[in-house]
Amino acid sequence: MTFLHPLALLGLAAAAIPALLHLLERRTPPEAEFPPLRYLRDAERQSARRLRLRHLLLLILRTALVAVIVLAAARPILPTGGGGGSGTGSGAVHAPTALAVVLDNSLSASAVVDGRPVLDRLKALARASLAQAAPGD
Amino acid sequence: MVDSRRLDLLDPAEVARLGGIEIVAQGVVEGFLAGIHRSPFRGFSVEFTEHRAYQPGDELRYLDWKILARADRLFVKQFEEETNLRAMILVDASRSMAWRGDPSRLTKRGYADRLVAALALILLRQRDATGLMTFDEAVRQVIPARVKAGQWTRLVRGLIDTPDGLGTAAEAALRQLTGLLARRGLVVLVSDLLLDRELALTALRYLRHRGHQVIVLHVMDPAELDLVGPPEVRLRDPESAASVVVRPRELAGAYAATVRREIAGWRTACRRHGVAYHHIRTDMPFGMALRLLA
Asked: Which ipTM value was assigned to this complex?
């Protein structure tokens, strides 16, 4: 897998933000008196596992969300059938492109310049650009 | 004396603003007794139990005339309690009782004091000997059950003179009570029941075995039934100084379920031991709470 904008991957560092927030947010909460603390303890004991799992899942989900956004911004491409375009080479990777060739077949294009009609040159140019197209285009 | 408005049916905190415990309790009792035709408390004391052969000196009014007419023999009817009932009211004065979830309400203790004063007044008016015991981790005030004049004032003074204590140890008070109530009587325990359930139940069961009628009034602030609060809060137990940090929103469901299970647990345990149990919220009009006892 390759990325069109590898520099954007630096943004992956942002994925650490939820975890950091989780660690830094150990601020001291307000205090209050609450006599039936024993009931609260019971309730906590019963739901401790469920809550811990939920917190963990939430953390994972938040981290994953940031990571996915960053990865998407880096525009990944899967080199499917990478050998297809022989002349293009793996270096000329580009995003899948819709390519339409419009050839000027008018009278002016049939003018002969340097012993060849202009149309021939245009055709050659069109072929060249078609040759660059990857199978995904 | 407060006018004829039904103080027993008003918001307890509003009623409490009218004056001291005496004024409030008297007003509540006036309203309460006006609203019922016959005192609901009369009657436990005079239940017929058995016949006994007449002996010279027995009061003639207890003679069973029907048996005399039929069998020509002299029998007297005996009653459960030949004099009136003897009642002891136990009030939990622990630190947890001095709490309220909202400044617009009475503390649990404030509510209990006024309710107990009203109950004592009703009992004393029908010539039932009434006494008081307050306790926290130890017994604080003991006023033996009497009917003599000034007893009610003494009881109210006993309530006022009991400061908010620390821990809760009902079983000590309940045990001491068994010594004070020689004859079969009525025991009313008013507490938030934040105590060791097994120990308390053992003591209650013991009282029950001694033949006393036992009523448990479980006083709770409405804020103790459901967990609400800021996103994150450190909640501290006023009695043990232990604390936990919780997010009320996350735990609200489990907490509400735990409290309801606890209440149901007390209710079934009490029923199993023949103890009457009533759950009372501090926003309940005093008259409604008294009616539960009727």
From this structure: 0.73
